[in-house]
Design brief:
By secondary structure, this protein is α/β, with parallel strands linked by helices. Helix content is about 45%, strand content about 10%. A nine-stranded mixed sheet has the order 3-2-4-5-1-6-7-8-9, with helices on both faces. The longest helix has 30 residues, at about 105-135.
Length: about 450
C-alpha cells in the first residue's frame, strides 16, 4: 500500500488485522482470546485506523470486566461513532468474522500485524535518518545516537515516537496492577516490589526496589563507601535475577580494582589482604569459591575514562535483557558540547541525558555523585540535597536521591561503628526517610542490619 509520506510503500496486512478482530467477535466471549494477544498487540500496531479504534473498544471492555459479546462490542462502537448506525456495524462485523476461519489462530494473526507494523516503523525511521544525516545540522555523534535510538526502539518492538491513545496504556497498567495484587496476596498481603530488589530490605521498603526508567543518584562524601555500596547492589541484583545484565561504567577505578573489591566483599577477605597477597591458607577455598560465583554472574564492566552519555548509550543498546546500569561517577563524565569551563551547565546536561537514557532503555540507572564540602562545616554532617555538587539539576532530574552517612567516620567513639544510614532524601514515587544498613569496613561490604544482629 502506498502511504501519503512521499509515496513510500508501507507494508501492511489488512487481512491479518481483520482476522484478529474477527477472532474476538467470533469467540463471543467464550474463551477470552483477546487475553492471548493483548500483552503484545497494541492499537498502534494496526495500519487501518478503523481497526485500531475497534481494538481499543475491545480492550476497554475487557478492562471493565465485561464479557466480549459481539453485540456489546458493536453497541460500544456505535456509541463511540466508529460506525454511524447498527446496519453499518453489523455489515462490517460480518466481514471481520468471515476473515477469521479459526479463533485459535489469533496469536499467529496478531504476530503478522505486529511484524508489518515494525517494518513500517523501520522504513519511516530510515527516511528520518537519511534526512537528518543529509541536513548536516547536528554533530555527527548526535546523528548516530539518534539513528541507533530509532533502530533500537524498533528492535525492542516499541513505537516510542508519536501520540499514543491512553486506552492501551491504561489497559497495560491495570493488568500489571492485577498481577501485582495477586503476587501480594500469595505473599500474605505484604507489599510486593515492583522493581528489582537491591538486596537491602529497609531500602527496598522505602523505594520499592530499583524501578524501570528511574534515575537514582547515590551520593556521599569520600570514605563513606558509595562505590562499595553500588558494587554490592550490582552483585545482589545479579545473584537474584540471573537473566538480567548489570552494566557498570567505572570512570575512576579500573575493572581490576572493582573486581578485587567484589571478591573481597563476597569472600569476606580483608581488602588489605587483597592488595598485599597475605592471605591465610584456610581462606583460599572460600576465596576461589566466591570468585567462581562472581565469574558466572551477568555483570559487565567498562572502565573507559571520561566517557559521555552517548557512548554509554551506544554500548548499552548491544546488551540483551539489561537490568541495571551503574555509573561511577557523575562528575567524571564528559558532555558532547563544549561549555567552555561552565561545569554547572555541563553537569546539568549530563543529568538530563542520563534521565533520558533511563527512560529510553527502560531500566534503572544508578549514578554516583560527589558532594560539596558544605556538610563538613556543619555540626550535623549528614548530607542535604543542597550539598549535591556542581548543579541543582541533579536533584531536579533524579527520581530518587540517596545519601550514605556513617557517623562513626567522624565520631570515633560512636558505639555503632558498623551502622550506616542510607537517607532517601528524594523519592518521586514514595516516602523519604532513613534506611539502616550494616557496614563491614574491612571487607567493603554492606549487609542488612537484621543479618548483622542475628550473627552478633
Amino acid at each position: 500500500m502506498v502511504d501519503e509520506l512521499n509515496g513510500l510503500n508501507l507494508p501492511c496486512s489488512i487481512l491479518a488485522e481483520k482476522s484478529v478482530l474477527g477472532c474476538v467477535l467470533s469467540d463471543n466471549g467464550k474463551r477470552d482470546v483477546l487475553s492471548e494477544v493483548s500483552t503484545t498487540l497494541r492499537a498502534e500496531h494496526f495500519y487501518i485506523e478503523l481497526h485500531a479504534n475497534i481494538y481499543r473498544v475491545m480492550l476497554r471492555l475487557s478492562l471493565a470486566g465485561k464479557k466480549l459479546d459481539t453485540l456489546v462490542i458493536l453497541n460500544e462502537c456505535i456509541k463511540e461513532n466508529i460506525f454511524s448506525d447498527e446496519s453499518e456495524a453489523v455489515y462490517y462485523a460480518k466481514q471481520l468474522m468471515d476473515s477469521a476461519p479459526s479463533a485459535s489462530a489469533i496469536v499467529e494473526y496478531a504476530n503478522i500485524v505486529v511484524e508489518k507494523s515494525m517494518l513500517r516503523s523501520l522504513i519511516i525511521a530510515a527516511k528520518d535518518i537519511i534526512n537528518e544525516a543529509s541536513s548536516e545540522n547536528e554533530p555527527t555523534e548526535k546523528v548516530i545516537d539518534h539513528a541507533e535510538h530509532k533502530i533500537y526502539g524498533i528492535r525492542e518492538g516499541e513505537q516510542k515516537s508519536g501520540l499514543t491513545h491512553i486506552g492501551g496504556v491504561v489497559f497495560d497498567r491495570i493488568k500489571e496492577l492485577l498481577e501485582l495484587t495477586k503476587e501480594s496476596q500469595k505473599n500474605g498481603g505484604k507489599p510486593m516490589l515492583k522493581g528489582l530488589s537491591t538486596g537491602f530490605s529497609e531500602l527496598d521498603d522505602k523505594i520499592y526496589g530499583l524501578n524501570e526508567s528511574d534515575l537514582i543518584i547515590l551520593a556521599a562524601r569520600p570514605g563513606m563507601g558509595k562505590t562499595s555500596f553500588a558494587m554490592n547492589i550490582a552483585v545482589n541484583v545479579s545473584k537474584k535475577y540471573r537473566d538480567k545484565a548489570v552494566c557498570v561504567f567505572s570512570l575512576e577505578m579500573s575493572k581490576e580494582q572493582l573486581v578485587s573489591r567484589m571478591i573481597s566483599s563476597e569472600a569476606l577477605v580483608p581488602t588489605e589482604s587483597m592488595r598485599t597477597g597475605i592471605i591465610p591458607v584456610d581462606r583460599w577455598t572460600g576465596l576461589t569459591e566466591s570468585a567462581e560465583v562472581l565469574s558466572q554472574l551477568m555483570i559487565y564492566i567498562d572502565d573507559t575514562p571520561a566517557c559521555g552519555v552517548n557512548m554509554i548509550k551506544s554500548k548499552l543498546r548491544r546488551i540483551n535483557n539489561l537490568g541495571v546500569v551503574i555509573i561511577d561517577y557523575l562528575q567524571l563524565m564528559t558532555s558532547s558540547i563544549d561549555y567552555h569551563g561552565n561545569r554547572v551547565a555541563e553537569i546539568s546536561e549530563i543529568t538530563r541525558d542520563l534521565k533520558v537514557l533511563a527512560k529510553e532503555l527502560n531500566v534503572p540507572v544508578i549514578a554516583l555523585s560527589q558532594l560539596a564540602r558544605n556538610s563538613e562545616r556543619r555540626e550535623d554532617k549528614r548530607p542535604l540535597l543542597s550539598d549535591l555538587r556542581d548543579s541543582g539539576s541533579i536533584e531536579q532530574d533524579a527520581d530518587i536521591v540517596m545519601f550514605l552517612y556513617r557517623n562513626s567516620y567522624y565520631d570515633k567513639n560512636d558505639p555503632n561503628k558498623e551502622l550506616c544510614e542510607c537517607n532517601v532524601a528524594k523519592n518521586r514515587h514514595g516516602e523519604t526517610g532513613v534506611a539502616r544498613i550494616g557496614w563491614k569496613g574491612e571487607f567493603t561490604k554492606f549487609v542488612n542490619v537484621e543479618f548483622k544482629q542475628a550473627n552478633g
